Amino acid sequence: MRDVRRKVRRAQTIVPFGVGGIFDLRGESFVAADIRSWGPSGEPVRSPRLARKLRVEGFRAAPAIPSGKAGFAARNGPVYVRFPKWLFCPHCRHMVLWRQDLEQQDKQPRCGRCPGRAQLAPMRFIQVCRAGHMSDIDWRRWAHSRSSEHDQRQCGVARLRFVTSGRSAGLESLRVVCLACRAYRSLAGISRKNALAQIGRQCPGTHPWQYVSDEPEPCEEIPRAVQRGASNVYFPHVHSAIDIPTPTGSGADDERAQRVHDDPLWPFFVSDDGGPLSEQYAQILASRCRVPEAFVQELRRRHMGEAAAMPTVADSDDDLSIDEWLALSQPETVTESQTFSVRRTTLGVGPEDPRSLRRLAEQVTSVVVADRVREVRALEGFSRYEPSTGDGEETEAGRVVPVVTSGRAKWLPAVETYGEGVFLAVDEERLGEWERLPSVRERTRRIEQNLSASFKADRLRARSGPVLLPRFVMLHTLAHHFIRQLSYDSGYNAASLRERVYARSHAPGSGHPPQAGVFVYTAAGDAEGTLGGLVRQGQPPHLAETLIRLLESARWCSQDPLCADSTGRSLANLNRAACHACTLLPETCCEADNSLLDRTLLIGDGDVPGFFREVVDAALEESAGAVVLS
Asked: H-helix or E-strand containing 619?
């Protein structure tokens, strides 16, 4: 018998097929259920910094099926539920409301009317709302909603056909027809805002995977009909953190403390502060980790003190970026580990090198290559129809639905990846002088006005800080061109690389150090990491050549002058001189949704001096001189 077992890669259980995401495979459509379906399965993923930020005890990764063992592996881990339930036969066009009792193990749904038993296809449209609920459209009610005869309005039969007239290619040629009373209605206008409300359809306040015992949520949102594969059906809310060891010289670096922190009982001991089981937890931890009980108590007091001083939820992204910035910009202060190995290097530019390289070395003051890094990505929840602001408050944007729809999640699904990377930091003094130029500040101010008016404002400010600085737009654009150039030079495709931009603005009086750097790293490495191509390009003489080439290529775009002279591009006009032909990357690469980009701030134009304008001008002069000499 043909193997039709459905398989999902472990990384896909976070994005794009995490909790609430729709998964299409071989003509079938499923939705990922919440983490209650996991039960006790899952492999622990350790990331204390990310766990403190998200206020959870830990993370789990979906259990992996060994290669060649798919037919014998236990079916543990994420559960995917068939959705939508309304299916139709591509041959006879009869519609079927599928039920759980009709499912057969490892078999696709088939039509019982056709001689060839054709595979049933899912309906194209589904119903969602801004509160994150999703359900099938009531196709019986839709078919009878335009009926004029009394018998048709009173028809309660759900024998339907999904037919096409072939007269046009639009939705008006698609009809849902009742076989009992011959009532019908085309799909024209189904995506209008009030189309479902006009037929008396309200949001049921449910999710496709909910149990029968789950109570539906009261929901007053207006349901909207959207295509099953539309981009606004699923907005995952993913957080990531690079595993950074504790700085050298701190007490937590002690091997004994590390053993205690790694013990599975440690989260319960911390959360039971002063509770009836606190003493028993301390005794068990002391016995397991071979340390004094007083040492365990001291570790908890230290942990509680750090938690009390931890930033608020609004600043938690800032907290993660500070640790990573310090570790990457000052690698000497961090001890190496099996998950984090970095070393400082240089551009390899000397006094006899061309002027363009010397200018570049004056502006790029720090280069660090990461031979091994570990990143943890965790799924906190999702929103539908409109992306959430991510601050947990009820606003006009979509609401974040947690990964467990009943109760509070104690753990979150996550995935860990190992890879390599290159970190660049620019000169803070030169950058500060450049940011104070009136033309630079005015160009950034106009971008920030668009940002403030955008529905993505809160989400993007979590990356850029409370104030959008020119350095963030410039360094973000540099990171994009760096990835594009590395995809040619290092052997990785662009989709396997990711960026982290360290250029946040901080709240007044925070005391946090200024940031001015970018980190480009592999995002598709397996458990053994990657092959070293990125690290090789981060060492002399390759890195300097790569940077010069990316700056030269950033000067032109196939859509110029439209791209270069743009006063607002992309969604909500959050970009300036940036388009798919020159700057934009696959969505998996960018942490800011391909927004807040501008080549002009990177290389300059007639009115605005780019930060690397002198480097580009020197490189052009050298190229022209070489052509004349030849």
From this structure: helix 613-629
Average of per-residue pLDDT across 412-417: 92
Q: Is 366 helix (H, G, I), strand (E, B) or coil?
A: strand
Closest CA to 417 of 389, 464, 375, 480: 375
| C-alpha triplet 488, 494, 497: angle, nearest 5° | 115
Judged against a pLDDT cut of 80, whether residue 307 lies above it is answered with: no
Q: What does the DSSP assignment read for 233-261?
A: G-EEEEEEEE--PPBTT-GGGSHHHHHHH
CA distances in angstroms from 485 to 277, 372, 553, 627, listed in the order given:
56, 21, 9, 24
- What is the SS3 string spanning 501-565? EECCCCCCCCCCCCCCEEEEEECCCECCECCCHHHHHCCCCHHHHHHHHHHHHCCCCCCCCCCCC
The model carries a pTM of 0.82
And the tokens for 73? 């592996």
pLDDT in tens, 133-148: 999 999 999 998 888 7
Q: 3-class DSSP state for residue 55? A: coil
Which of the residue ranges 106-110, 369-373, 562-566 would you say has the lowest mean pLDDT?
106-110
Q: Is the dihedral of CA 360, 366, 372, 373 positive or negative?
A: negative
What is the rounded distance in angstroms from the CA atom of residue 195 to the CA atom of residue 189?
7
- Amino acid at the residue 597: L
User: How many CA atoms does the CB half-sphere of 197 hold within 13 Å?
Assistant: 10
The token pair that represents 331 in the structure block: 């690698």
Please state whether the peptide bond connecting residue 354 to the residue before it is cis, i.e. omega within 30 degrees of 0. Answer: no
Taking 3-state DSSP, the helix, strand and coil percentages for the chain, each rounded to the nearest 5, stand at: 35, 20, 50
Largest separation between any pair of C-alpha atoms in the chain: 92
Residue 293 and residue 286 in contact, taking contact as beta carbons nearer than 8 Å: yes
Which pair of structure tokens corresponds to residue 452? 């403030």
Give the burial class of 104: count Cβ atoms within 10 A of its Cβ; 0-12 exposed, 13-18 middle, 19 or more buried. Answer: exposed
